[in-house]
């Protein structure tokens, strides 16, 4: 029974084209500062759905707010972790939900942010293993975010400090412990991402990471798909964008419709020339 339940939910997470366009809206309980694009989270959900997102990463109460915006083919990926992001020692990951609760919410997946290379690796691995076993027993897909230990440092500094070896190790560990889908950071090149994909025998999605230029993000996603990813999981580059719907549509063009990054960016640029009614706050693009 659990195997059947997991298969049914995975079919909703990964669409008929074999891809997944995930919008991560959980940053309110992970970012050390409030990100203004999340102020109207229902609007961001509605815009991303209109743009083609089929999965949303949300915490407990934000899920209650946003589910009325869902369509019949929209999936909830229920967050089981939060970050003590302002802790002076490190970005400690804390358990804040359970698989049983996610089932009661009608979720199609649970999500855990996995931060290794800290003083609490033992506890982190125990948490991941426990969630993996619970998901297997209850038929719930498990998305593991095998990312750098913090998501809020400049990407170049994170790459310099941790590199592809860290992402490969974390992604493989998550797959070993029960993850059905692994989300990881872009390691800097298609060649480096291919190394990670070859080491991980489950579907992989690419994290959007910190704010980058629209073209850089689309090129990253095109190269990632060519290297074997099945999709993306993007937060700030959608909900902090001046036009979240158009940005999500641009990602969907590349991931679902196999457009080139260049063509998708050209369409996006034309849309951005027009007045937007989006309530998202324009923020500077940071590397």
End-to-end separation in angstroms reads 46 Å
Shape, principal axes of CA atoms: globular
As a percent range, the share of strand residues is 15-25%
Number of separate structural domains: 1
CATH topology: TIM Barrel
CATH class: Alpha Beta
Number of helices: 12
Lateral strand order in the biggest sheet: 1-2-3-6-7-8-9-10
Summarize the structure.
This protein has 287 residues and is α/β, with parallel strands linked by helices. Helix content is 44%, strand content 16%.
Protein architecture, described:
- 44% of the residues lie in helices and 16% in strands.
- It has one domain (2-272): TIM Barrel, CATH 3.20.20.70.
- The chain has 12 helices and 10 strands.
- It has helices at 2-13, 41-51, 60-66, 99-104, 121-138, 155-161, 163-176, 190-199, 214-227, 236-239, 244-255, 261-272; strands spanning 20-24, 55-58, 75-79, 81-84, 92-95, 109-114, 142-146, 181-184, 204-207, 231-234.
- The chain is globular.
- α2 (41-51) packs parallel to α11, α7 (163-176) runs parallel beside α8 (190-199) and α11 packs antiparallel against α12.
- By secondary structure, the chain is an alpha/beta fold.
- The strands form 2 sheets. Strands 1-2-3-6-7-8-9-10 form an 8-stranded parallel β-barrel, surrounded by 6 helices.
- The protein starts with a helix and ends in a 15-residue tail after the last helix.
- α2 links the parallel β1 and β2.
